[in-house]
Amino acid sequence: MFALHHGAAAAAAPAVSLSLILVCATTLSLAQNITLSPATTTTNASLVSAILDPSFAGFGIEPSNLFDFAGGETANALSIGLLQNLADYSGAPPHIRLGGNTGDYALFDASYANFQVGQNPKATSQGTIPADNNVIGPAYFEVLERFPKDTPVTFGLNMAYYDSDYIDQIVRTAQAAVDGMKNVNLYSFEVGNEPDLWLQNKFRNGSWGGKTYMKEFLDRADAVYNQVLKPAGYPATFFEAQATASTIGTTFEIDMLVADGMLNATNGNKYVSLWNQHDYFYFIGVTTSPMTLDDLMDLDNTETQFLYWKQQSAIAIQDTGLPFALREMSSVGPIGMHQVSDTHGAALWTLNFFLYTATLNISSVQMHMTSNSNASAWQPIDLYGQGPHVRPLYYGHAAMAQIIGGGNATTQIGLLDTTPITDTSYTGRIRAYTAYSKGALQSVILINTKPANASSTTKGNFTFTLALGAANADTSVFLSYLTADGSDALDGTTWNGMAYADADGTATQVDDTVVSLRTSSTGDVTIPVRDSQAIVANIGHLLGTVGVLDGEGHNVGDTTTALPTCTASSAPSGTAASCVEPTGAKKKSAAVVRSVHGGGCFAAAAVVAGMALLT
């Protein structure tokens, strides 16, 4: 972040304006560029997703850490505020998967009253960590209820436990979940976590494999449905299958489980609602190569690493007709990596990954969080010598949520071809996506992940020329920035001019500048994107200044970006445009708005010069 001293800024304004324009002209002459022609409607797009669920971009919470994220006897204001922000932006709360390794350690005890996960002093079950090691009680669901209303929750049931009373135990926990979730929405049950690893962690032995897993899964699903779900009016297809770490080279692949009978009826009922798999871009102790922030920001690496999961998702969707969700995902597992997963570069990676997986028609993605992970979107408790705080990657979630909300429950994402790139320094660093609202082009998302450290005084840029077509000729395009001082920045990231308070997640507009470009008579506009930055170019208004509707068409509240929208259609280049307060928008008295013809770096220079003159 930066601030202009009022007196000095006014005095130096002409020099700032000239120098910025000259620097930008030089940069544009040397920088790499590409021209893209996005389809103006989904019917003409070559690759576009299905309509995204507003809860698409969610979180996984490790079960043993729920009290850290939701709070104990006192609610965790930071978690609740951050989740509510995303609900307001997208139109629905982010999907929460309450599952992970520790879900297979816990049993429910109605008499256990503590606001913490307890340890069973009489654990006797199998496993390197026994499958009855932990105890949860009614308070577990009490704190879960603090999350935003109608938060969809996939709840993990303990399948690892298989003592003689295993049916009684899993039914007891399922009943507690059904009874305990009234404010949040019990969306599905995940039965067991990463069963492909159960020989390693000694939950099972002998001939354990996909076929045995399938039988045990359906056995438990049948009991839970008939004893818990059916009496409560839930459907039989309420169970997510697999929850695997990786099915590569195992008997847990989707087509193998289907052949074994996973989708067949059991006692007249089919139980599988979707396929659920897990992945990490990098996992410490498993991935053999070293890891750097540069590796993470090379987006070609992500697509290479994810290729197998891409294939599995296609099998799920096309061959079985069921959705595929990535319920446990992260940049670095199991607990992140300082100066990699907690940087601004990770925020850019997060936004790109959500957009990329959306184009694959993956139905939902949960970024996994533990209390002690540097890859969690926020730190919920005092740890590592720091208090609770928001990490940069949360801003990637915020950007995705506003992109989804911009379509008011009709958003579809398309992928634009950004190859070839002749400047090899940008190979793997450039991505572009489209967002459609009601079938019409609404925005283009431009991502540049070429590393640029905060300490660098000269950062490059990559220039996109967008040919938006005659339908968007002589039209205002508003730019929203996901930015920071550099890719390695641990703080200072902003999205759409907003920052989020470490105390309670409250959004504050820290930069009121609005960059508005004007397309040409043929619908073209040129936009430079600085290295280690992403821009959403939204047609007609600034993203977040139009009320967001939920899936039923109801307004979810105030608009989500406290900025006016510009109504002038033809302001002279570099001059102020007249602005009005849009219906429902929060008023911000200090906003500076510039509408510029021709776009490019000159537009940004004009805006900054205007800031200097007005401050």
UniProtKB/TrEMBL annotation:
GO molecular function: hydrolase activity
Keyword annotations from UniProtKB, A to Z: Hydrolase, Signal
Residue span(s) of domain Beta-glucuronidase C-terminal: 432-536
Signal sequence region: 1-31
Listed SUPFAM superfamilies: (Trans)glycosidases (SSF51445)
InterPro entries, per database record: GH, GH79_Enzymes, GlcAase_C, Glyco_hydro_b
Gene3D superfamilies cross-referenced by the UniProt entry: Glycosidases (3.20.20.80), Golgi alpha-mannosidase II (2.60.40.1180)
Entry protein name: Glycoside hydrolase family 79 protein
